Amino acid sequence: MSTETQLPRLKFHLVNAFAPTPHSGNQAAVVLFPKDDPRVLDEAYMQSLAADFNYADSAFVVPVNAGVHPPEYNIRWFTPTTEVPLCGHATLATSFILLNYVHPGEPSVLFHTRMRGDVLARLEEAGQGGRVAVNLHIAPTATGSPESSQLGGIIAEACGFSASDIEQVATYDLGGPSALTHVAEHVALGDLQVTPSRLLPRLAADVVVTQLLPPTADTPPDTVRAACRVFGPGLGTDEDPVTGSSWAMLTGYYLNGPGSEFTKRFLPAGSDLSRVTLDARQLSARGGSMTCTLSRDGQAQLVGQAWRTGHGFLETF
Questions:
Q1: Are residues 14 and 97 in the same domain?
Q2: Under the cellular component aspect of Gene Ontology, which terms does the record hold (predicted)?
């Protein structure tokens, strides 16, 4: 009997995460390995599966101690072309699956990552379309780089807006040197015709274009409306539908980082930004939403809905 036939079939789930409706948000595949399965060490195998699924990201999880409270799992994330240090939507998708289908009744799950420490997720509402809260590491942002003007120019040209619309350029690291551009509120961010290939080769990791928007009649107190689009042609994804890791970065940027000066424009004088909620919308073709706040330990807490769209077994190893 071959090694292949001795190994069990692997269970997988397909999930739309940060999805206000069943067919919106970002798609993720979640692959569940049994404990001590040798395939969990096979990076080429996981990369091949991620390419087969061809979603923005696929999550691969293996139990470390599933019998404790909360259950503990190791997690890794792969795009169709590379491993990434953190993926928010695939983490929310995995949390949704584990807490609804593998550990029903458990309120939370703890993930151990290779590059971003531990991630705690909590189920706020069970079932299809239920809400999950995920605490994610915040990638620090910096402004004032000598190359900021050049980066802003590249992003403006690729995205089709004027360099005069840029209010700030910041850099950070997420799978490589990355950049965000905060643009004025009059820019119709969702309507921009973007050519992601023009970001290369200079911007080979994540590129975020973001803005804050005036409140509507329905905006709650201590809430600021935020929008963004995220591009990653160097990571195998021209435009990401919804990006939890980028929203974690933006939570820090807008609530205790360089972008806080823009947040204060939409709040009463003296507001405590640590108590502010971002009403976050990603203006991709699929669209997605979440709320973002700072947790007590300085992480970003992202809350969004998820829907399982399918599940099954992998037949080839």
A1: yes
A2: cytoplasm
